[in-house]
Amino acid sequence: MLDRKYEGQMEGKEKRRFEMEKLKKMTWKEKIEYLWMYYKIWLVVLALVIAAICTGVQMYHGITEEVLLNVTIVDGGNVDRTGLEKDVKELLGAKKKNQSVKINSNISSSKEDYNSRIALTTLIGAESVDVLICPKEIYEEYQGMDGLVNLEEMMPEQAAEGTVEGEAAIFQDNAYLDENIGVSYEPVYACVLQNGHNKENAVEFLKMLTEKQ
Hints:
- This protein is an alpha/beta fold.
- The chain is 53% helix and 15% strand.
- Strand 4 (164-165) and strand 5 form a beta hairpin.
- The radius of gyration is 28 Å and the shape is elongated.
- The model has no long low-confidence stretch (mean pLDDT 81).
């Protein structure tokens, strides 16, 4: 094998050919060690450039994304919610690729799960919840704290039918919720957060759920 001194005397094209021939004779391990030994600065630069591009793409996506609805499901089971997302997008007339529906189902109602309770409080405080679907005891924790929308005023027809009471839409024996939302408890309470960014969309979503009972 030629030494590094002779390599330094080569012209660009000749040097590239020499490097290729040398790499072909190496194992994968030897190739990695060789590239890292002689070209690590360029590999680091390449990695930084790729990382910067990925970060830029993610930031651009975050800036341009239009969230139509944020739904948080307490004690959500392991179900496919693709159909739910599709139904909500159709309901809200989503036609653009950057329009999305966010569904968070990782919150537990267990009083012993302190992290989940903190996570839910944080999500609500960060104005990242439009609709909260939960068991009765979770609803009662937030009821009367001026944090929920009065649904009897927003959904008078459903209130007259008895589906809506105060600040919650209440569901029982709802096959659509079982299949698409994945909660095993009953009754199911659904409410709209005052500090949510999509209250009108949230109310339309609850109206859709009442119609699918």
